[in-house]
Amino acid sequence: MAASLRLRGAVSGLRYWSRRQRPAAYSLAAVCSRSMASKTPVGFIGLGNMGNPMAKNLMKHGYPLIIYDVFPDACKEFQDAGEQVVSSPADVAEKADRIITMLPTSINAIEAYSGANGILKKVKKGSLLIDSSTIDPAVSKELAKEVEKMGAVFMDAPVSGGVGAARSGNLTFMVGGVEDEFAAAQELLGCMGSNVVYCGAVGTGQAAKICNNMLLAISMIGTAETMNLGIRLGLDPKLLAKILNMSSGRCWSSDTYNPVPGVMDGVPSANNYQGGFGATLMAKDLGLAQDSATSTKSPILLGSQAHQIYRMMCAKGYSKKDFSSVFQFLREEESF
């Protein structure tokens, strides 16, 4: 549908909300009528590594859920907790006028919205549809047009923070869409994240996410290379990480998500790189960045190299491992 489209816009505006500082412009008096529906059921489609804890945080805030996932087993614990499970995205749209989707790829998002049993088959006028998937900005724009034809509202709201932040409710949401609907989206997103940022028109949330993930991939590869070099020079990895994290080389990949086994607890590197954010998804996001860079004629030398590294990882058996397994990949690839 949108394969030939490319991102043309840039971030046109910025509005920021966090639990610590909420702008006066978004006081309760300014919240639109849809958000005042409060504890009415919320649809949630996509219960993977990120969607599962996000949906649970909505439950913790008292929202009844209408659940769907292509893998029925993913719905079982929600059904056991009393939430309603349905058999298609269309059924979700029939029962809820606020829906959040959290899906792996553009193809999955298109199917969930525009497929034979997609949301658009039964969406109600006035519904608010929030897509937190990381997909091509052009696809978000195309979906928004289709949703608008049905009298509903579409917003792209991809996330940053990983599985840990999804569990703790501390995600960052980058939101694109009609600004007048931001408060309604914020009511729900604030249950799952500590930062909700308005970026501009539909597609700008995706643009921000793609840029963030390109930087994340580059910094993770840099951290992995640095740790590998230091270890081979005889440094203790924990000591090296401590030095990096009190020095100018400090970054999220080194101090929060270190890729070296044994340096940190509670991260994928401490669990044979299981869980977390898969190398396949990082390669996908870097591909989106590459496409956007081509369409905007933007040089991304390190981004392109990162894309190739993650593609090689996927071809060599790392596709299901967390993206921090680039450390293990570099350790094993002596030819580099």
TrEMBL record:
Q: Could you name the domain of life of the organism this protein comes from? A: Eukaryota
Is the keyword tRNA-binding assigned to this protein? no
Which Gene3D superfamilies does the UniProt entry name for this protein?
A: N-(1-d-carboxylethyl)-l-norvaline Dehydrogenase, domain 2, NAD(P)-binding Rossmann-like Domain
The record's keywords, sorted A to Z, are: Branched-chain amino acid catabolism, Mitochondrion, NAD, Oxidoreductase, Transit peptide
- Quote the InterPro entries the UniProt record gives: 3-OH-isobutyrate_DH-rel_CS, 6-PGluconate_DH-like_C_sf, 6PGD_dom2, 6PGDH_NADP-bd, HIBADH, HIBADH-like_NADP-bd, HIBADH-related, NAD(P)-bd_dom_sf
Q: Which EC class is the enzyme in?
A: oxidoreductase
Q: Catalytic residues?
A: 209
Describe the location of the 6-phosphogluconate dehydrogenase NADP-binding domain by residue ranges: 42-200
Provide the protein's localization.
Mitochondrion
- Pfam families, from UniProt? NAD_binding_11, NAD_binding_2
Which stretches make up the 3-hydroxyisobutyrate dehydrogenase-like NAD-binding domain?
203-329
- Listed binding positions for NAD(+) are 40-68, 103-104, 108, 134, 284
Q: Name one GO cellular component term.
A: mitochondrion
| E.C. designation(s) | 1.1.1.31
Is this entry keyworded Ligase? no
* Any one GO biological process: L-valine catabolic process
Question: Which biological pathway?
Answer: Amino-acid degradation; L-valine degradation
Swiss-Prot/TrEMBL catalytic activity = 3-hydroxy-2-methylpropanoate + NAD(+) = 2-methyl-3-oxopropanoate + NADH + H(+)
**GO MF annotation, one:** 3-hydroxyisobutyrate dehydrogenase activity
- Which PANTHER family does UniProt cross-reference here? 3-HYDROXYISOBUTYRATE DEHYDROGENASE, MITOCHONDRIAL (PTHR22981:SF7), 3-HYDROXYISOBUTYRATE DEHYDROGENASE-RELATED (PTHR22981)
Write down the NCBIfam families for this protein, in alphabetical order. Answer: HIBADH
The entry's family comment says: Belongs to the HIBADH-related family. 3-hydroxyisobutyrate dehydrogenase subfamily.
Q: What name appears for this protein in its UniProt entry?
A: 3-hydroxyisobutyrate dehydrogenase
Q: Which organism is it from?
A: Enhydra lutris kenyoni
Quote the gene name from the UniProt entry: LOC111147347
